[in-house]
Design a protein that fits this description.
Elements: H1 5-17, H2 28-35, E1 42-46, H3 54-64, E2 69-74, H4 79-87, E3 92-95, H5 100-165, H6 171-201
Parallel strand pairs: 1-2, 2-3
């Protein structure tokens, strides 16, 4: 974005030579229209524009894509304007006239910075997803562990009783004990199937 047509054409040609797709506009209002229709990895904007500043354009770009990287160029360079640009979130600052190699290098750094931020966010989202899955599985295992305690206790209790007192028990008591062991073993089987299915889909 630059209100000087000759410099705008120079920037466009320089960046296209580097293989970048370039959209060139001469005002903040034109830039705003573009930003409402698409995202841009990199914004190169003149600090001083007739109706706004390049920093306003960068702020508008970040509404569409918070990762957008901004490079500010100006013909009135000073430490104060450089600090102002950096404070407002510009990634880099170039003084006019900037040679093609400096412009190309700044664009490469800016786009690499954009891609690194994008990769970092993707990795963070993946880690958050894995953390949520681990939490869900931990909760599942805790619940299943709790559900297993009762049938295991029943099976262990009745089996121990039969091993030690079967000869002294009435046939009806033995039958009830065996039935209880069978019922709880069946319940354990259902819990095992439930756990396997949930782990497979979790």
């Amino acid at each position: 974005v630059d209100d000087e047509p000759e410099f705008l054409a120079y920037v466009k040609a320089s960046l296209q030579t580097e293989g970048h797709e370039v959209f060139a506009v001469t005002s903040a209002s034109e830039a705003s229209k573009l930003l409402h229709h698409r995202r841009f990895d990199l914004i190169v904007a003149d600090l001083r524009l007739p109706s706004a500043s390049g920093l306003d354009v960068l702020a508008e770009a970040r509404k569409t894509d918070p990762l957008s990287v901004g490079i500010v160029v100006t013909g009135h360079s000073s430490i104060d304007t450089a600090l102002e640009a950096l404070r407002e979130g510009a990634y880099d600052y170039l003084a006019k006239p900037c040679p093609p190699d400096a412009l190309a290098a700044a664009a490469r750094r800016g786009i690499e910075h954009y891609r690194l931020k994008q990769a970092l966010i993707q990795k963070t989202q993946q880690l958050e997803k894995l953390e949520a899955q681990l939490h869900d599985r931990s909760t599942l295992l805790q619940n299943v562990s709790h559900e297993l305690k009762n049938p295991l206790s029943v099976v262990f209790g009745y089996s121990s009783f039969l091993l030690n007192h079967a000869e002294a028990c009435k046939p009806e008591d033995v039958r009830k004990s065996v039935q209880s062991i069978h019922n709880n073993a069946e319940r354990l089987g259902h819990l095992r199937t439930k756990l396997g299915a949930q782990l497979e889909h979790g």
